[in-house]
Amino acid sequence: MAELQLIQAKIVLKLPASRESIHRQVHQIGQAQQALDRLQASALDKPSRFSAPLDSSSKALTRLILQASRYAESLKLLAEEFPVDPQGTVACLRQLCRRHLQRSEQLKQLAQDTARPKSA
């Protein structure tokens, strides 16, 4: 959970920006996507080692990883679109950021829920 939160913090696109800045941001987003891929592989690999099905927190984590990956891809597409339609791109970016913030809150809640000791 903590690793996902750290990776999500790197998935950022700030517009308007210069071409060089956009290029750097897209590069950082790409690196975050690679980290998400590694995290997802790790999350899916752990349960299979013990031949146990994914529990609800693992399923939720996998879902949040996929959502973060989709968000990163959307930001990369918006970065490409920015020179063509700056105003429309910024408007779309605002909406995406709102949804991403909601998912980040879900991740925090999930982390808190899994950190609590389970009652017998």
Distance, first to last CA: 24 Å
Helix/strand/pairing category: mainly alpha
The value of Rg in angstroms is: 16 Å
Oligomer: single chain
Mean pLDDT: 86
What does this structure look like?
Helices cover 79% and strands 0% of the residues. The protein is elongated. By secondary structure, it is mainly alpha-helical.
Features:
4 helices; elongated; 0% strand; mainly alpha; 120 residues
Write the layout of secondary structure elements.
Blueprint: H1 2-9, H2 19-49, H3 56-81, H4 86-115
Helix pairs in contact: 1-2, 2-3, 3-4
The gist of it:
With 120 residues, this protein is mainly α. It has helices at residues 2-9, 19-49, 56-81, 86-115.
